[in-house]
Amino acid sequence: MNTVTVSPKFQVVIPLEVRRRMKLEPGAKLMVIETPGGLRLVPLKPPVALRGIARGITTDIEREPDRLP
Questions:
Q1: pLDDT bucket at 69, cuts 50 / 70 / 90
Q2: What is the 3-state secondary structure (H, E, C) of the chain?
Q3: Distance from C-alpha of 15 to C-alpha of 19, rounded to nearest angstrom
Q4: Per-residue CA distances from 61 to 24, 52, 56 (Å)
Q5: CB of 4 within 8 A of CB of 12?
Q6: How many Å separate Cα 50 from the centre of its chain?
């Protein structure tokens, strides 16, 4: 388990092994989510990184009449 210390400027350093595993680069944006037990940091991905995430799904579903193209 990795631990970090909050600096006097309220900054933390993400441990190297975590940065490598998460493929974080300098300037990466992280969303801070407050949970009942603490904080969660979630990397924000640019829209181009989401391209193709639904590749291969079927669109042959029965649609409701008001949803037809």
A1: low
A2: CCCCCCCCCCCCCCCHHHHHHHCCCCCCCEEEEEECCEEEEEECCCHHHHCCCCCCCCCCCCCCHHHCC
A3: 6
A4: 38, 20, 14
A5: yes
A6: 11
Question: Residue 47, by phi and psi: left (phi above 0), alpha (psi -120 to 50) or beta?
Answer: alpha
Average pLDDT of span 25-46? 92
Across residues 47-65, what is the average pLDDT?
83
Matching residue, tokens 């829209």: 47
Mean pLDDT score, 20-41: 93
**What is the pLDDT at residue 13?**
95
